[in-house]
Amino acid sequence: LCSVCGEVHVGHTPHKIRTCDGVGSLKNKEHRWMKGGVEQILPQVESFHLYDRLGRAVSHDEQLIVDRIPAVVELCVQGDVNIPEYPTRRRTFPAYSVAGRIIDFERRFPKEAAEVAIRGMESWEVMRSGIRKLVSEYAVHTCGYCPEIQVGPKGHRVRNCQAFKHQMRDGQHAWQEATVDDLAPPVYVWHVRDLNSREPMANDLRRYYAMLPAVVELFAQAGGRVSGGDCASLMREDVAVPELEEMKLAV
């Protein structure tokens, strides 16, 4: 983890690609590396929990009262997964919105590490495909200015947007339809092809390198295989990485 800009690298030897643009970065844009954690490769996006998804939106005054839980968990709860800590109203009869009102007709060993990596890679793909299916059935909204997420038929009214020129909007969010990447945002890192090499990735060769989500790169280095899904096209296995001397001789 770069302590200046927050860029993530998965591997023993941090790369030398000069892409640091954070406040206080060096003039040559080299990164200042430090040890990171799980929260860097799998950031958690939260959403207000709705006890009734067809009820009114969470107001600004309720922002400290209503629970905020991981958006993926909230999506699963609204998708009929029962979690005792987060109860929600289930309807067995249809409900309709008429003139803005709801009419309800209801009353650690290498072998073990490789196995974990394989299961983890499968779980990642299952989670992404599951989110994609749930998003097509249940509405999820994201702010067009900031990463705020609200799982439900409409966005909340809490005025906590801190994006650019939020004062002009009085902190109100600009809600739009969310995507899979909004709910499970991938943190992209440079893909390390040769795990046995101790040579850092060179800045001059970065156009030949591939980038993968940090979770996928971690599982791949531990023995998982990127065989399909969204990441297969990002591997760039058909691109040969030249040596620095070879690149200098290229016309």
Fraction of residues in β-strands: 5-15%
Largest β-sheet summary: 3 strands, antiparallel
Strand order of the largest sheet: 6-5-7
SS content category: alpha+beta
* Overall tally of domains: 2
End-to-end separation in angstroms reads: 36 Å
Strand elements, count: 9
Give me the Rg, rounded. 22 Å
Give average pLDDT, whole number. 84
Low-confidence parts = none
Give the overall shape, derived from the CA principal axes: globular
**Total DSSP helices:** 6
Order of helices and strands: HEEHEEHEEEHEEHH
Tell me the helix content. 10-25%
Structure explained in plain terms:
23% of the residues are buried. The chain has helices at residues 38-41, 71-78, 110-137, 180-183, 214-221, 244-249, and strands at residues 46-48, 68-70, 95-98, 101-104, 140-143, 149-151, 175-177, 188-190, 211-213. The chain starts with 37 loop residues before the first helix and ends with a helix. Helix 3 (110-137) packs antiparallel against helix 5. A hairpin with a 2-residue loop joins strand 3 (95-98) and strand 4. With 251 residues, the chain is of the alpha+beta class. Strands 6-5-7 form a three-stranded antiparallel sheet. It has a two-stranded antiparallel ribbon with strand order 1-2. It folds into two domains: 1-43 and 186-251, no CATH class; 46-183, no CATH class. The chain has six helices and nine strands.
